[in-house]
Amino acid sequence: MKKNINEKISSEISDEKYKLRTDHINELQYSISNSPDDFSNRQMLAILIYSRDGLESSLPYFHDAFRYANEANEAIEIHNQLGDIFSTEGRLGEAQSEYAAALAVAEQLAVTEPGNVKVLRDVSVSQNKLGNVDFATGNLSSARKRFETSIEAMFRLTKLNPGNVDLQEDLAVCYDRLGDVNLAIGHLVDARTCFETSLAIRASIVDDEPSNIWWQRKLSISYDKLGDIEVVEGNFSAARARFKASLAIAEKLAAARPESAELLRDLSVSYNKLGDVEVAAGKIAAGRSCYETSLATRRTIADNEPNNSGAQRDLSVSYDKLGDIELGVGNLAAARAHYEASLAIREMLAAEEPSNVQWQRDLSVSYGKLGNVEIAAGHLSIARAHFEADLSVADRLASIEPSNADWQRDVWASNGKLGQLALMEGNFERALIHFRKGKTVMETLASRWPDHPGFASDLEVVRGIIAKVEAEVGGAG
Fold first, then answer.
1. What is the pLDDT of residue 8?
2. How far is CA 273 from the centre of its chain?
3. Which pLDDT does position 477 carry in this prediction?
4. How many other CB atoms sit within 10 Å of the CB of residue 75?
5. Residue 81: per-residue pLDDT
6. CB-side neighbour CA atoms (13 Å) of 22
7. Which pLDDT belongs to residue 15?
8. Comparing C-alpha atoms, which of 358, 396, 346, 388 is closest to residue 371?
9. 117-137 and 165-185 helices cross at what angle (nearest 10)?
10. Which residue from 282, 294, 277, 170 is spatially nearest to 223, judged by alpha carbons?
């Protein structure tokens, strides 16, 4: 019955969204018939077609808008929008091509208009976007170079325009991204320096414009990133202080504008961050309390905006966090209930937007978590069904985009779970099949990006597991 209710709600929401988008599309098509050269209307039409009908249906409309781009900056906009969409869809190779095209146009303009602030900013933004793609594919050295180049360009711009706070914020974002890649590489000192630089920039902006909510929100991001560094290093008291500084900002802004879903979401994120550090510090009750507060906040947002798929997804993440806590303390019935609540939301989202790869990947995560509960409960056959569903999604996504490192790594993780399950059942041959599939994936990633510490570590782990199982099989024989 619960699933039928979810499906009914999903259908009603989907129908309402479809009608609203169709009405807007009809209005735009009428406007275009009267003003066929209007680039902005054609651009907006392409975006709405994408939101209603998906990527493939929208591509001709984006290409049509591109043909009506009268200025180079409009061409850059289309390339970047397509790049963002391809990136969201997980099609990183195509995203990279669009961002590279945007960069090429921007660099050409920069030669002819060396003092044009917008053009120089476009160059920096395109470098950042290409760095994001490199990061997602696992090419960390290239990503770092992109972000460093972006910082250099943005730093020059801020010196030429010292009063432009938007450029200051752009520079802070560049430092954040360089910090993220240094954190992924394991260069914690460099990452901390980047995040502290970003924090200093944002604190200065807030000092100049203390009433600006946007800058306050950005300042809270910097506190969160520094908190993340402290968690990695095991400095839980320092992490807690950073996250509480972020929470203080979120609480103040949410109280000032309680109707803002965006500010309420910031509040929920801050509680989750605090929950994470409490759990890492072994303070389970405090962590649970933070997660429950976050869940309550997200329920409010989802209830107020039932058409907001992002709010629904956030709700599922909160259920997962509470499930993780209950699983950790051995409360399997409660863990299962939380994970099932999360899965119900994700099934609804995936049914509403079957082409949304994020919703599909979320499904995979839910199946894996439910499998972990059944392993702990000793229900191995049920666990296998969940893990196989997890692997099915992971295999499908990995086949869509071989360059997406996260999706490829998911294949190893899913096979690893099935391999461990097979070991528990005493089926060494089946275990080896799964572990060897995982090894193949990690060998490909590690050989493609040898400087990625995570890939090298995963490969070492799976090779060690295989060697141990092969030794046991040989000993048994």
1. 39
2. 16
3. 45
4. 19
5. 94
6. 6
7. 58
8. 388
9. 20
10. 277
pLDDT surpasses 60 at 7: no
Position 136, amino acid: A
* CA distance linking residue 121 with residue 125, whole number of Å: 6
How long is the chain?
477
The Cα 273–Cα 267 span in angstroms is 10
Q: Are 269 and 312 in contact (CB under 8 A)?
A: no
C-beta atoms surrounding 159 within 10 Å: 9
Buried b (16+ CB within 10 A) or exposed e, 236-262: bebbbebbebbbebbeebbeeeeeebe
Q: Rounded distance, CA 221 to CA 375, Å?
A: 37
Helices (H), 234-331: 236-256, 261-280, 284-304, 309-328
On whether the CB atoms of residues 380 and 393 are closer than 8 A, the answer is no
416-429 pLDDT, tens digit each: 999 999 999 999 99
Residue 30 makes CB contacts below 8 A (sequence gap 6+) with none
Tokens of 431: 């275990």
Tell me phi and psi for residue 252, to 5 degrees.
Answer: -65, -45
Q: What would you report as the CA-atom Rg of the chain, rounded to the nearest whole angstrom?
A: 24
Per-residue pLDDT reduced to its tens digit, 133-151: 999 999 999 999 999 999 9
Tens digit of each residue's pLDDT (9 = 90 or more) over 71-103: 898 999 999 999 999 999 889 999 999 999 999
Give 161's DSSP letter. S
Q: What is the mean pLDDT of residues 400-407?
A: 90
User: What gap in Å lies between CA 43 and CA 31, rounded to an integer?
Assistant: 13
Tell me the pLDDT of the chain averaged across its residues.
92
In the structure, how many helices (H) and strands (E) does the chain have? 20, 0
| Class of domain 401-477 as given by CATH | mainly alpha
What CA–CA distance (Å, rounded) separates 377 from 333?
A: 9
Six-digit token string for 436 = 């060897």
Whether residue 138 contacts residue 445, with contact meaning beta carbons closer than 8 Å, is answered with yes
